[in-house]
Amino acid sequence: MRKLLIVGISFMAAFAISAQAAEPKLAKPVNLEKVGKAIRDGKLYVGKHYAMPEKNRFHNIHDTGLGLPCNGCHNKAGYPDNYLFLRKAEFPLQVDDEDVGAVHRAKCLACHSKGGAGRTFYNITQK
Amino acid sequence: MTKFVRVIDTERCFGCRSCVAACAVENHFTPDAPWNVMMEYETGTYPNVARNFVTMNCQHCEEPPCKAACDAAGFKAISKNEFGVVLIDYEKCKGCKYCVATCPYGVPQFNDKVAQLYPGKEKTAYETVEKRHPTHAKRANVVEKCTFCWHKLEKAVQSGQIGLIGKVPEFTPTCDLVCPVGARIFGDIDDPNSTVSQYIARKRATQIKKEFGTKPQVYYVLKGGEY
Questions:
Q1: pTM of the model
Q2: What's the rounded Cα separation, in Å, for the pair A44 and B135?
Q3: Do the chains contact at A121 and B102, CB–CB below 8 Å?
Q4: Residue from the list B97, B106, B212 with its beta carbon closest to the beta carbon of A51
Q5: Preferred mutation among A56, A86, A90, A122 to probe B, highest tally of B CBs within 10 A
Q6: Is B25 left (phi over 0), alpha (psi -120 to 50) or beta?
């Protein structure tokens, strides 16, 4: 009886520990400025090949390095049909089997304007 | 100072695409890499609808994000000359497409292959021209875009006839020459008496996507006025 009790308690303890381990961990917030500076200073390796597809530098920086979610950029929000964009119809990109179209360039403004976390590409100062 | 700009009057444009065709002929168009396109969209609610036509080529921005991205990547293939024309050096371009990613107007065109006009058939005489201006050299895996027909403007600069740019066909971008309704004007905005300066002022032409701070050198007369 005692042995059965010990086995039962051990089993329940092991189950509780594995259940806790299976809980997804909350993502740690990323300091974009620090990570951006580390990349620019060469302290954070993000690959050598300058190209747009995944596993290359662009996605290594934004996806892996900065932890930006895919649908942060690749989503349909913010593009009205008459938004003048040359390549709007040329990007039948799909994310999670959904056609999301071109990335709205305004998503880049937050970091890539003056005072932002990334290199300055747009001559606008962040307030 | 001389700064070349273009003004496109969308109140006059009716989408004939003469400018698109002219650019394709002038600049040795290859499929899937147009330098000038016509965007067409509908506004309003039935029965009060309108069709809008907006032609777009390179905006030749004063603060070009394409150049900033290319410089950041270390290739320095994009330059802006003293007349404000933004040009790509195909020798230096590595086809990374960072300029494609940063341009708010979607202007840079990546040529993954130099496709034939008529696949499976003999190349046309147009495609076999060997002696071309460097801006017309077609290569795979590089980015190309509108050059304000720099191959024409350069001749004016070299022959000391800058004052004729935008005034004579020989020294005017071909897309601006062919518009049947005079919706496109090219010239020097630093000359207050030029046609383009007066047109921009009189019709209150504006730039598009000013929120990016690129300061484009192509102005648009928009229906409904300045925004």
A1: 0.85
A2: 37
A3: yes
A4: B97
A5: A86
A6: alpha
**Architecture of the domain spanning B4-222:** 2-Layer Sandwich (3.30)
- Contact (CB<8Å) A86/B98: no
| Ranges of H-type helices in A1-127 | 2-22, 32-40, 57-59, 70-73, 106-112
How, if at all, do strands A98-99 and A94-95 pair?
A: antiparallel
Which residues have CB under 8 Å from B159's CB, separation 6+? none
CB neighbour list of residue B211: distance below 8 Å, 6 or more residues apart: A106, A109, A124
Continuous segment of H or E residues that includes residue B39: strand B37-45
Q: Which two tokens stand for residue B118?
A: 């008529």
Query: What residue in A sits closest to B44 (Cα-Cα)?
Result: A82
Give per-residue pLDDT as tens, B43-84. Answer: 889 999 888 898 999 999 999 999 999 999 999 999 999 999
Domain residue ranges in chain B: 4-222
Q: Nearest 5°: CA angle at A61, between A59 and A66?
A: 110
